[in-house]
Specification:
By secondary structure, the protein is of the alpha+beta class. The protein is built from three helices and three strands; from the N terminus they run E-H-H-H-E-E. Helices cover about 30% and strands about 10% of the residues. Strands 1-2-3 form a three-stranded mixed β-sheet, with no helix packed on it. The longest helix has 14 residues. About 5% of the residues are buried.
């Protein structure tokens, strides 16, 4: 008589709280910081695309990139928004 197969326990990762993100930005750029946090926290590139200004122009590039690159939330610990000189719009920032 063959013994029944042994049950295997699978290790399921526990959900961790998001890391603390240090932000160096002005109060007037609070909305931009919020969008960046949502962009990086998005579960996949399709959700991340919702936070891109020219989504129709970069969709194919993002899809190609994430075909070869692991997808998922991007873990960051620092956002520094630097106002750009000669910005075409009123609120363009560099990200460091």
């Amino acid at each position: 008589m063959v013994p029944p197969p042994r049950a295997r326990l699978l290790e399921v990762p526990t959900r961790r709280d998001p890391p603390q993100i240090h932000v160096n930005a002005t109060a007037e750029s609070e909305m931009a910081v919020g969008v960046l946090k949502e962009f990086f926290a998005a579960a996949n590139w399709k959700e991340r695309l919702r936070h891109v200004q020219i989504a129709d122009q970069v969709r194919d590039l993002m899809e190609q990139y994430y075909t070869a690159t692991p997808d998922g939330p991007v873990v960051i610990d620092n956002i520094e928004l630097i106002p750009q000189q000669n910005a075409q719009r009123g609120c363009e920032y560099g990200i460091q």
